[in-house]
Amino acid sequence: MLTVAKTVDETPTIKTVRFRESLEACPGQFVMVWVPGVDEYPMSLSYLGRNAGITVQVKGDGTRALASAKPGDKIGIRGPYGHGYELVGKKILVVAGGTGMASIMTFVEQALSKKAKVDVVLGARTSAELLFEKRIARAGAKVYISTDDGTKGFKGFATGLAEKIMSEQRYSCVCTCGPEQMIAKVTRLAGRRATPVQASLERLMKCGIGICDSCAIDGMHVCRDGPVFSNNELRRLSELGRTKLDLDGRKVPI
Questions:
Q1: Does residue 13 belong to any structural domain of this protein?
Q2: 106 shares its domain with 232
Q3: Nearest to 179 by CA among 200, 207, 162
Q4: pTM of the model
């Protein structure tokens, strides 16, 4: 059980919960978060080490309860679980959409601390929902902005801006997190240029340890084999960006 130190409004719909305690993990790993009396959810760690933190988009009762936590409240954490990002080469392109930046922010900071050059394509529906824009810049990465409605930066999806940047520069690796259809397109874009890619996937997850099968994709499990998948693994995932399992275990279109 960790103790809530503070909560921070990141955007009108996204909030970060920081804890008094430390939590060590690899960038990209996740934890199962238990809100007493409500439910348990998988979440990426957006802050590591001292005053660890998670960042959540308020969508339903569970995330609303978590976002409403007050200093001193207790939140259950188990983990960390899964595989994180690996620094490949010295020039990295990060493509993040929506709350995807929560998963990959600590990797950006780690890569920069190891003297890598990092460019970040940060995408959101509108400028008010851009996550960690100032934090990325403070870390020392170059930030490229895309918004679906054109309220800031490139007008269109993050994939459109990423394609433009990749046509102008070469990278040692592309790392991505966000909507799965975005990830699938980024994987294809990187593949055309023979650039290695890593992606953090998000699927329905109940156990976090590979037992319940709810996060299965092409015979693998996001919780155990991911959430960050490597280049070769991603290219073998025929279901990527196409289908997923619903609450009843039925395969449905994404």
A1: yes
A2: yes
A3: 200
A4: 0.93
d(CA 142, CA 148): 20
Q: What does the alpha-carbon distance between residue 53 and residue 4 come to, in Å, rounded to a whole number? A: 9
CA–CA gap between residue 93 and residue 120 (Å, rounded)? 6
**What is the rounded distance in angstroms from the CA atom of residue 163 to the CA atom of residue 252?**
28
> Which residue range forms the structural domain that includes residue 7?
2-81
Nearest to 26 by CA among 226, 215, 186: 226
Strands (DSSP E) found in 52-207 = 53-57, 74-81, 91-97, 117-124, 142-147, 154-155, 173-177, 197-200
Residue linked to tokens 């490597």:
230
pLDDT tens digits for range 104-122: 999 999 999 999 999 999 9
Domain of 150, CATH number, reads 3.40.50.80
User: Rounded distance, CA 240 to CA 238, Å?
Assistant: 6
Average pLDDT value for residue range 238-250 = 88
First-last CA distance in the chain: 34
Joined together, the tokens standing for residue 90 give: 């010295």
CA distance 201 to 227: 5
* Digit-coded pLDDT (tens) for 151-186: 999 999 999 999 999 999 999 999 999 999 999 999
Neighbours of 102 (CB within 10 A): 26
Instruction: With beta carbons less than 8 A apart as the criterion, state whether 34 and 77 touch.
Output: yes
At residue 60, the pLDDT reads 84
DSSP state string for 199-228: EE-----SSSSSSS-TTEETTEEHHHH-BE
Do 119 and 70 reside in the same domain of the chain? Answer: no
